[in-house]
Amino acid sequence: MMKNWRNEISSCRQDFGRFATHLERTLYDHQRAATEQFEKSQFFVLKKPRQSGATVLEIMYALWKALFNTHEEVLFVSPNSFIAAGIIARIQALCMCLPKQFGAEATKLTKNQIIFPSGNTVTSVSAAKVEGLQTPTVAIMDEAAFMQDHGMDLAKKVYRLLRPAVLLGGKLIVTSTKNTTEDFFWKKFCNAKAGRNEFDAMEWLFNGMVVINYKEERCKSQ
């Protein structure tokens, strides 16, 4: 039995979709396409429709990275502190679904952070609380277009603070629905779509029924 669990854990480490089955989730094609790009890209931006399951996918991905890798510090950034606190609660709820062999029982839990027996962490903060001293291995900016505070585009500040850590070997995932045509998210997405910045861009249309990977589309046209 121990050998079987060892094999299962090894399979889940290599296959996010297999891990998702332990959370009683089956990935749709658009979700699988996104997570594959999460792994491939150092900078990734996703434009999505509302209620398309992207936030849940990002939470599952953050948990997967923290459970099956070493020296992982995952940072989840949300538009406000209320949403940020809810992210850790949702991760904790997912942990309760997992077999004990996965080592998902927290050794320390606060409203903004969960620490696992491996020492890996998932920290969740609002955009206003991101500090330059943070050096995550994976940073996720969820609903980046809505990181606003009295007219100030906080997503731009968050990106500026996190970019040095990403360049040292980390990963930055930026997702959002559209808000305005002038905010950080929309400009990054449009430039990435045209291949004019460091981001790889993807778009989900019609709740994920259509997926456009703009990097792949450009490669096909060359």
Strand order of the largest sheet: 3-4-5-2-6-9-1-10-11
Order of H and E elements: HHHEHEHEEEEEEHEHEEH
State the name of the first-level CATH class: Alpha Beta
The CATH homologous superfamily: P-loop containing nucleotide triphosphate hydrolases
Question: Could you characterize what this model shows?
Answer:
By secondary structure, this protein is an alpha/beta fold. It has one domain (28-221): P-loop containing nucleotide triphosphate hydrolases (Rossmann fold). The chain is built from 8 helices and 11 strands. The chain has helices at residues 2-14, 16-22, 29-40, 54-68, 81-95, 154-167, 184-193, 214-221; strands at 43-47, 73-78, 108-109, 113-115, 121-126, 138-142, 148-149, 152-153, 171-176, 200-205, 210-213. The strands form 2 sheets. A 9-stranded mixed beta sheet has the order 3-4-5-2-6-9-1-10-11, with helices on both faces. Strand 10 (200-205) and strand 11 form a beta hairpin. Helix 1 crosses helix 2. The radius of gyration is 17 Å and the shape is globular. The chain starts with a helix and ends with a helix. The model has no long low-confidence stretch (mean pLDDT 93).
